[in-house]
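Researcher: I've got a protein sequence and the SMILES for flavin-adenine dinucleotide. Could you write out the 3D structure of the bound complex as structure tokens? I'd like something to compare against our soaking experiments later this week.
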Amino acid sequence: MEKFDCLIVGGGMVGATAALALADLGLKIAVVDAHRPNPELLEHPQSFDPEQPYNLRISAISLGSEQLLQRLQIWQQVLDWRACPYRRLGVWELGLSYAEFNCRQIDQTHLGYMVENHLLQASAWIQMQARKNISMIAPARLKAIETFSDRVLVTLDTGQIQCELLIGADGGNSKVRELAQIGVTGWDYQQSAMLVNVITEQGQQDITWQHFINGAPAAFLPLQGNHASLVWYDKPGVINELVKLPNEQLQQRIIKHFPKRLGGIEVLDKASFPLARRHANQYVKGRVLLIGDAAHSINPLAGQGVNLGFKDVKALQETFAMAIGSGKHYASPEVLTQYEKQRRNDNLLMMTTMDLIYRGFKQPTGPVKLLRNLGLFGAQRLGVVKDKVLAYACGL
Ligand SMILES: Cc1cc2nc3c(=O)[nH]c(=O)nc-3n(C[C@H](O)[C@H](O)[C@H](O)COP(=O)(O)OP(=O)(O)OC[C@H]3O[C@@H](n4cnc5c(N)ncnc54)[C@H](O)[C@@H]3O)c2cc1C
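Model: Sure. Here is the predicted complex with flavin-adenine dinucleotide in place.
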């Protein structure tokens, strides 16, 4: 039976990045995924056609995440394929309460990039293919685990593997979490999100904005050229109805619902996602550890989900490097607990902030509406505090 230092279940954006970060420490890594992404692109990266339609799943990648991805040699390929920088971030409910954050406030050239999830994942897989100490096992599904004090025996539908540490990076419905019997705290939000890829009348913009309408945000994410991604948050029933409309009718509804600054659009593609919050009660149980959405799924309101996952990866690499450097076993209870302590507080802070925003803006009228608009109005004039908030949101 093959033996590895770490077996990562889930080669999504977070799992694949974690594999590269831990391989850089000299550990022998295996990555298991139910799907092998983009086989054509992995074989021939230059076969990417920049004119091909945008995928609906797009993430706002923060400056902090970009630094990690650069270090792991994932980033350049993503830029070579397709990504769109944004330099400003606008939020408002009433016209007067408009708050704008600008990269110049924190002496940066941009605040982040809009990137298609599948391209980021494919670039990480290309790097994994090039590392001798990473084995990729895909397609394969996790079936069972047997945990011991110093190892985990993992049964896949393709055979058995032994590892010293099992890392669950298998997303919000994590099988690793379930098999390790780690409970979650969470709830379903009374909102769904519809992602809509559009062509806009205006050319490429350098701003991403969010307008709160009756307690729910409508967001604009810029893409290259005249492309953009819109996010319409609403009650699940409303989103279910909207997503079934023919594109021409949806177009009319968007023009009515979104702020005037959107201008004319043409709908190209759309899909909807239910929103849920899940937080694992433990990130570590014996020799099992959870990262990314397997540990925490957050309201996507401020585009922080995968960025939190990348912060997990950075912390994991640093904690393990320090342990190895001081002669400790990277998967000892002391080291894993240290990792969990560091990440739980930060993740909880971001999840709670998102919930406060979600709840604060859900109240469509009355004193709460007045207070939040005063809050945004004040935020625009906060100076140093505003810069600190922005730096934190950018992962700096
Ligand atoms: C509408 C929406 C918009 C979002 N926008 C943003 C944004 O702008 N910015 C941001 O930072 N985040 C955003 N997010 C969140 C972000 O998409 C997630 O945080 C991110 O995808 C999590 O990555 P992951 O690698 O942890 O998990 P996933 O992307 O879920 O990857 C899990 C991987 O595990 C594999 N897998 C699952 N089960 C098994 C199994 N049993 N055996 C083998 N393999 C398995 C899957 O095939 C997959 O490859 C958004 C989310 C939503 C819903």
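Model: The two ends are 43 Å apart (CA to CA). The chain has two domains: 2-84+114-186+277-361, 190-275+365-393.
Researcher: Great, I'll pass this along to the crystallography team.
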